[in-house]
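User: Sequence in, structure out. Go.
Assistant: Echoing your sequence, followed by the structure tokens.
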Amino acid sequence: MVFQPLLILEIVIVFSFIVTSVYMFKPKGNETVHLIFFWLGVALSCLVTFISATSLPASSEFVNQIIFAWCGLLPAAIGIIIRMATGKTNTIANVLVMLSTVYGAACYFIFQ
């Protein structure tokens, strides 16, 4: 079995996501640490969604799958809105960002 470069990148992103998720929920008194890991989680979810959506061929038979893959950004967007509205660490926002990353990775592995 030969690993494709996008698969290797996806595996590295998922590993980074796991580490980020651990530190996003690790209780510390420093709000800056939570903010940094929240935005890192958002960046990883955007990256994994971009990879899963653009790795599909741009033909009419894959349009539904491409749209389905891009919909993975919706939970992250809702999480950002919740985080900005509360102005502090919010578990629901963190879970939504995590869900967005898992959704993007699942789309990549299912559609490939």
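User: And one key feature?
Assistant: Helices lie at 5-25, 31-54, 63-70, 73-86, 91-111.
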